Amino acid sequence: MVVNWLRENKVAAGILTVLRLYIGYSWLTAGFHKLTGGFDATGFLKGVIANPVKGPDGSVVYGWYVDFLQHFALPNVDIFNTIVPLGEFLVGLGLILGCLTTAAMFFGLVMNFAFFLAGTVSHIPTDLFIGAIILFSGFNAGRIGLDRWVIPFIRKTTLKKPIKQNA
């Protein structure tokens, strides 16, 4: 019942637009400040590796993620210094414009989880909750936005017509 309302109702589309703009502005500004301010993830990555998330017993909770950061992200920090700010900016832009909304929100959630696994809490739980609502709402989340035209165009141009079989 709630899922259908989120996915189909026009009032829900209006509420989703407000949530989408809120989250989009947050992503866009974070990415913009990193793009224009000389972002370098090296210190953050070293801090996460040196001080990983630990459970109540003191053991590392996400050891696989720390290994990923230590053995892949840190040696390739130049790539991350590019894709993090650009990704944040593009997620924000997609959400604000309502263009490829579900894809933008999916990648926003991926980044939120990456920050969360690193031990950053801040406003991330709220962003994850709102982001999940936007993602599960599908097309309706971008109905008041460019998705109103973009999604039908993509569907029309990419879906192949069924092949008729002779009886």
Supply the key terms.
8 helices; elongated; 167 residues; mainly alpha; single chain
Question: How would you explain this protein's 3D organization?
Answer:
The chain has 167 residues and is mainly α. It contains eight helices and no strands. The longest helix has 27 residues, at 10-36. The radius of gyration is 19 Å and the shape is elongated. The mean pLDDT is 94.
Brief summary of the model shown:
The protein is built from eight helices and no strands. The chain has 167 residues and is mostly helical. The protein starts with a helix and ends in a 9-residue tail after the last helix.
Fold topology:
Blueprint: H1 2-8, H2 10-36, H3 42-50, H4 63-73, H5 77-97, H6 101-117, H7 124-137, H8 147-158
Helix pairs in contact: 1-2, 2-5, 2-7, 3-4, 5-6, 6-7
Number of continuous helical runs: 8
Number of strands: 0
SS-based structural class? mainly alpha
Strand content: under 5%
Helix content: over 70%
The low-confidence parts are: none
Shape: elongated
N-end to C-end Cα span: 42 Å
Average pLDDT figure: 94
Please summarize the sheet with the most strands. Answer: none
Please tell me how large the radius of gyration is: 19 Å
